Amino acid sequence: MQLVLATNNNDKIKEIKALLDDLPVTVLTRDDFLEFINVEETGTTLEENAILKARAIFDLTGLPSLADDSGLAVDALDGEPGVYSSRYAGENVTYADNNQLLLVKLRGVAEDNRTARFSCVMAICWTAEDIETVEGEVEGLIAEEIAGGEGFGYDPVFVYPPTGQRFSEMTLEEKNAVSHRGHALQKIREVIINRTNRTRG
């Protein structure tokens, strides 16, 4: 079985492939195609965006496609940036731009009130009518400054309370073991395994 990762984000490709490479599927990325598209995220929820992306890449390639959409919800900001996490500071911005805006908005907010959660919805489009979704979530706190050299997105400001580390201070393996995307990937692994078993049967 071949499975296409429906993303142009190299950081996401790295994290997802790390947890799927041992499965009985051939994981394909944008580099395996002459043509690949950047799907506009017009949905109002993470699930809608994940399905949009998975279906678009299935339509393009004709192969089962896996997409995710992730968001950070900060309680003190009434759930911002949420579904707009990747473009919080505007279109075509950097990770640093988004982090800086978030820290400015939280300036003066006490540590106990800087609670937040990362959510990730993954969708596999097997056919135009056959789409499965799973969700992963992790609770944390928003730090007062940027630190750490690993990860991407809001990892430099997201603190995982059980270890006191930012996601940007964890190895890829450590982060995948506890992160929202890691939790979703563990569930999607089961979806893929069940599907491959049914196909063989």
Description:
33% of the residues lie in helices and 25% in strands. With 201 residues, it is an alpha+beta fold. It has one domain (2-200): Maf protein (Alpha-Beta Complex), CATH 3.90.950.10. Strands 1, 2, 3, 4, 5, 6, 7 and 8 form an eight-stranded mixed beta sheet that branches. Helix 1 packs across helix 5. The longest helix is centred in the last third of the chain and has 21 residues, at 180-200. The two termini are 14 Å apart.
Topology pattern, helix = H, strand = E: EHEHEEHEEEEHH
Structural class by SSE content: alpha+beta
Overall 3D form? globular
Give the integer mean of the pLDDT values. 95
Low-confidence stretches: none
CATH architecture descriptor name: Alpha-Beta Complex
* CATH structural class: Alpha Beta
By DSSP (H or I, 4+ residues per run), the number of helices equals: 5
Tags for this entry?
eight-stranded mixed sheet, 5 helices, 201 residues, alpha+beta, Maf protein, 33% helix
What is shown here, in short?
By secondary structure, the chain is an alpha+beta fold. The chain has 5 helices and 8 strands.
List the SSEs and their pairings.
Elements: E1 2-5, H1 10-20, E2 26-28, H2 46-61, E3 65-74, E4 80-82, H3 95-105, E5 115-127, E6 130-142, E7 158-160, E8 165-166, H4 172-178, H5 180-200
Parallel strand pairs: 1-2, 1-3
Antiparallel strand pairs: 3-4, 3-5, 5-6, 6-7, 7-8
Helix pairs in contact: 1-5, 4-5
